[in-house]
Amino acid sequence: LHNNSIAIIDNTKILPHSVNAQKGLYPDTEKFITNLKKNIKETIFIDKEFLGLTPVMRNLVVLGKAASIKSFPVKSKFIEEAIKNNTRGDAERSLKVFREALNSVNKIKAV
Predict the structure, then answer these.
(1) Rounded-to-integer distance, Cα 19 and Cα 41, Å
(2) How many CB atoms lie within 10 A of CB 76?
(3) How close are the terminal C-alpha atoms of the chain, in Å?
(4) pTM score, whole prediction
(5) Nearest-10 Cα torsion for 5, 50, 67, 31
């Protein structure tokens, strides 16, 4: 990451192998967020309203939020086209999740 980076994060823990094998500790989340705030342009936290989704849908939330940033290099209409053409399963639901995140000014907050 560089000082102009924007990070989109949530509170989902993804345990590294060393933690699962009880050979290491999970990193301190507060220290990590503090480090991000000090070293990059912005940190965006995905609020609780999007928690409980499947991993694929959560990725669409992150992608939708990223696409809402003006400097994001891909326009949302192209992402929506890719979702329509490449989704296995319910493309309409995937589009709905993406669009909700894309337009979720109040649901996602900067920390």
Answers:
(1) 30
(2) 17
(3) 17
(4) 0.78
(5) 0
